Amino acid sequence: MIDDARQIYRAAVQGVQADVLLSRIEWESIVEKSFGDYNNIYVVGMGKAAMAMAATVEHELKLPIREGCIVIPRGYSDTLPYPNKTPQKIHVLEAAHPVPDSTSEDAAQVLLELADRCQEGDLLIVLISGGGSALTTCFAPGISIEEGQRVVNDLLRSGADIKAFNTVRKHISLMGGGRLARRAMPAEVVSLVISDVVGDDLSTIASGPTVGDPSNPEDAMRVLRALDLWDDLPQSVSNYLNKACNDPSLNTPTPDDPLYKKVKTLLIGSNKLALESACREATNRKYHVTISESWIEGEAREAGRELAQFLLNYSGQTPHCFIWGGETTVTVKGKGIGGRNQELALSAAFELDSSRKSVLLLSGGTDGIDGPTDAAGAWATPATIPRAVQRKRNPQAYLDANDAYTFFLEMNTLLKPGPTHTNVMDVVIGLIR
């Protein structure tokens, strides 16, 4: 069952690789003229899938690219699934994730300056995937990198969902909320997006650098107040948001802005496609398969308990594979190491504890990374807690400390595929025999 679950997860990831997704695009329907008729073609990108997307655009599509630059997480350059096809014309930069640093600001400036060079008759192709917000964060004037980092860290620990998180980021930085598209005017802009958010909201993915922003500075302030973060904000951040409320020039372009007449944004990859690929693999392995129609959201430990209870209460056909997609959050109170998928699995382990049912639950991020760890997630069975107790470990103490990574490392049940160069949220697999 462990091998089955890992291979089903692997199939989910393979189904949303850049080469698979880009091969489906009908370019003639999204660009205004043939590629050879543009004065210049530029390519920029950001996110965990950006390098794989850039490699495919450059080597498989063979576009006449004049110049390009993409930004990926630190350490990704040496992990491309197809090393013989690394981008050559498109420059690759690495930056910090999930908390931006000076490399993120420098990378954002490079992309914005490249967009500035676009003229009438040019085409700018933008490759967008999850992680792009942190990788290309250039904080607004007056907000230092240290002050911006403090806000991001507070948001990460608060349990804020990605929409709330990016509502704040869009209004204290210079890339998201359609600002990249505005810098590229009057060129034509085509954005290709791999979604890492529930509902595939294009204005939220990587903070929507080429998409009209339905939010405003007041919304960002409401988010911060709702999370009890407003009173502890650096003065520069609260001052900037207050100023932006009264200065339209500091706001992001709204969805009805005329600039979007020359901007097309196409969703090419989503969690749904990953789940469908997982379903095919599970079927090949002789499982009856059910893909959940509802997303997994909310606190990871609550979701873990609910999914484990569901598996234990199931009494239908076996062997059966249940597949869920979505993205949970963790409100961090302890000082341990972990991520939402590992916390979900650890919480599930308590519900499965000592059950006589043959059941397994695996939760993994499709990007291969879960929180600030080198694991995508973990799996749990009815034997997980008894094994830990036998080794004189206190599982509850690990959960209380948000230290699921250390727990599963000691149990040798971490899911470690490495960087996958894609990102469509999380996949949870439940197997019953």
Structure keywords:
12 strands; six-stranded parallel β-sheet; 16 helices; glycerate kinase, domain 1; globular; alpha/beta; 37% helix; Rossmann fold; 433 residues
Q: What can you tell me about this protein's structure?
A:
It is a single chain. The chain is an alpha/beta fold. The chain has two domains: 20-138 and 173-215 and 252-269, Glycerate kinase, MOFRL-like N-terminal domain (Rossmann fold, 3-Layer(aba) Sandwich); 272-432, glycerate kinase, domain 1 (3-Layer(aba) Sandwich). 37% of the residues lie in helices and 16% in strands. The protein is built from 16 helices and twelve strands. The strands form two sheets. Strands 3-2-1-4-5-6 form a six-stranded parallel sheet, sandwiched between helices. Strands 7-8-12-9-10-11 form a six-stranded mixed sheet, sandwiched between helices. Strand 1 (41-46), helix 3 and strand 2 (67-73) form a beta-alpha-beta unit. Helix 7 (162-170) packs across helix 9 (217-226). It is globular, with a radius of gyration of 22 Å.
Write the layout of secondary structure elements.
Elements: H1 2-14, H2 18-22, E1 41-46, H3 50-59, E2 67-73, E3 90-95, H4 102-116, E4 123-128, H5 132-135, H6 145-158, H7 162-170, H8 179-184, E5 188-194, H9 217-226, H10 235-245, E6 263-269, H11 271-284, E7 288-291, H12 300-313, E8 320-326, H13 340-352, E9 359-365, E10 377-380, H14 384-390, H15 395-400, H16 404-411, E11 414-415, E12 426-432
Parallel strand pairs: 1-2, 1-4, 2-3, 4-5, 5-6, 7-8
Antiparallel strand pairs: 8-12, 9-10, 9-12, 10-11
